[in-house]
Specification:
Elements lengths: L1 H25 L3 E3 L7 E5 L7 E5 L3 E3 H21 L7 E5 L2 E4 L7 E3 L2 E5 L12 H6 L3 H4 L6 H27 L5 H19 L7 H6 L3 E2 H5 L5 H4 L7 H22 L1 H22 L5 E2 L3 H17 L1 H25 L5 H18 L7 H25 L3
Parallel strand pairs: 3-5, 4-6, 5-8
Antiparallel strand pairs: 1-2, 2-3, 7-8, 9-10
Helix pairs in contact: 1-5, 6-10, 10-11, 10-12, 11-12, 11-14, 11-15, 12-13, 12-14, 14-15
Length: about 400
């Protein structure tokens, strides 16, 4: 009996390793660290149809224990959903050690968003007849069948899992490692330099003639051919407080996003967001109303950070929920409630930031299909803004 127990435990461990190997190395799932969770492993891949995979090795001998396990699972899933700012989350629980007294449909039993699948005989072979597994993971059985046995198999599985984990760790470290914010500081310096020149070569930052001389945005002039104002206006500020607020915002947001995305992507997102903000500004504002400032471009950076945070919401979910989204909503609300604030520019920049980041892509996350869709959406969006600014507004 003792030898039989050792054999069963070894086979059970082997099955766990096979499942971990499949979901981590083949399906790009990552382990979730849960305090207090014993005899179970949680994995996440928020890009998969089933975002959460749970492997349960604990022995569940009756329905009461199963119902308690299900209740606990629902509670943890709810917390993960909240942390990752996910609207919907589907989960599969693989039970490797269910007792005969548990009433569970062998094929599949689903409780709300949790699909429960028993794994019998310490093998995945019978799962090839499971409809859900065949639909969601059609290669699971094939990919968990190995020629190696015993210690040799454990060594291979461990080596593959370790290599994948180390590669993911290097990618995350490279993404989140802070780099020198060269572009951010250059933009801030340029804003300050233009502001100083407006006093040295003009009549100050609140003088209409000086603002127009240095490239402030004005719908009437833009439609006459001075298209450069759509970009130059992002480096012109009306008054010291305006300059200070925008430069400080850029100093807070810029270094992080530039570090995450890289210098050239960051610069392109900044300029395209400024362009979109200026286009929407001349579309909804008066043709004779001057607008200037980097706020449209800065809102584009917020939109870009929102898109980036969505893909890395396992790491940044709490930041998205408690900081970034409230900041965006608060600033938009202030813009609607306060006269003189060009909220059209903010909205245009915000949307452009999301779309252009989707088009340019996020390293290790965005697929080629996502990039193509991003470019298509961005082109349609800018074409629509050009129509509004140059044709619709001129009617």
């Amino acid at each position: 009996m003792e030898n039989q127990g050792i054999t069963l435990e070894t086979k059970n461990d082997e099955l766990v390793m096979k499942l971990l190997h499949y979901f981590i190395t083949d399906k790009d799932y990552n382990p979730i660290v849960l305090h207090g969770a014993k005899n179970e492993i949680w994995l996440e891949n928020l890009d998969n149809e089933y975002q959460i995979i749970r492997i349960v090795t604990d022995y569940i001998h009756n329905n009461e224990q199963f119902q308690f396990d299900l209740l606990k699972t629902k509670s943890i899933l709810k917390k993960i959903k909240k942390k990752t700012v996910s609207m919907k989350m589907e989960m599969i629980s693989f039970y490797l050690n269910l007792g005969d007294n548990v009433t569970l449909i062998k094929e599949k039993q689903k409780f709300e968003h949790i699909s429960c699948i028993p794994v019998f005989d310490n093998s995945t072979v019978h799962l090839q007849s499971n409809q859900l597994v065949c639909e969601a993971f059609p290669d699971l059985v094939k990919q968990t069948t190995f020629k190696e046995k015993g210690v040799e198999l454990f060594m291979r599985l461990t080596k593959d899992i370790t290599a994948k984990s180390e590669n993911d760790a290097k990618e995350a470290e490279n993404t989140f490692r802070m780099k020198k914010p060269v572009v951010t500081m250059a933009i801030i310096v340029l804003n300050v330099l233009v502001f100083i020149l407006m006093y040295l070569l003009g009549n100050g930052s609140t003088d209409t003639a000086t603002l127009l001389k240095f490239g402030a945005n004005l719908g009437e002039l833009v439609r006459r051919g001075q298209i450069y104002r759509l970009i130059t206006s992002a480096f012109v500020h009306i008054g010291f407080v305006h300059l200070l607020c925008n430069c400080y915002s850029l100093y807070v947001i810029g270094p992080q996003l530039e570090s995450f995305l890289g210098k050239w992507k960051f610069l392109l997102i900044y300029l395209l967001s400024a362009l979109a903000g200026s286009l929407l500004s001349i579309s909804f504002g008066s043709s004779l109303k001057i607008s200037a400032g980097a706020s449209g471009a800065i809102f584009g950076l917020l939109g870009s950070l929102l898109y980036f945070g969505y893909y890395y919401r396992v790491y940044l979910g709490s930041v998205l929920r408690s900081q970034l989204i409230p900041i965006i909503l608060l600033n938009l609300f202030i813009g609607f409630m306060t006269p003189g604030i060009d909220n059209a520019s903010h909205i245009g920049g915000l949307v452009a930031g999301v779309f252009t980041t989707m088009a340019l892509g996020i390293n290790h996350k965005t697929t080629t299909t996502d990039r193509i869709n991003g470019w298509i959406i961005s082109i349609i969006f800018f074409a629509f803004l050009i129509y509004l600014g140059f044709f619709k507004a001129a009617m």
